[in-house]
């Protein structure tokens, strides 16, 4: 989302180390914030000596 402003940001705890991690996290946002899209970015953190690796991004359009 280029040229967009950040309304809210939330982090989630690290998933357990496995070959098929489960990402079942609920994030709540205030309804008073007016936004038209939700963007989720996933980073991989493979250990204390490795850098974070970009895994993917999802952008969801929100109807008002």
Can you offer a commentary on this structure?
By secondary structure, the chain is mainly beta. The chain contains no helices and two strands. The protein has strands at residues 37-44, 53-61. The protein has a two-stranded antiparallel ribbon with strand order 1-2. The protein is elongated and about 40 Å long. The mean pLDDT is 76.
Q: Layout of SSEs?
A:
Elements: E1 37-44, E2 53-61
Antiparallel strand pairs: 1-2
Largest sheet, strands/sense/barrel: 2 strands, antiparallel
Alpha-beta classification: mainly beta
Mean pLDDT: 76
> What are the low-pLDDT stretches, counting only 5+ consecutive residues below 50?
none
Per DSSP E runs of 2 or more residues, the count of β-strands stands at 2
Overall shape: it is: elongated
Give the structure's gist in a few sentences.
With 64 residues, the chain is mainly β.
Task: From the structure above, extract its key features.
64 residues; mainly beta; two-stranded antiparallel ribbon; 27% strand; elongated
């Amino acid at each position: 989302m280029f040229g967009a402003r950040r309304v809210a940001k939330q982090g989630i705890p690290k998933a357990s180390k496995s070959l098929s991690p489960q990402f079942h996290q609920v994030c709540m946002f205030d309804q008073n914030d007016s936004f038209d899209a939700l963007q989720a970015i996933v980073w991989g953190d493979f250990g204390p000596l490795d850098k974070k690796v970009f895994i993917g991004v999802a952008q969801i359009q929100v109807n008002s």
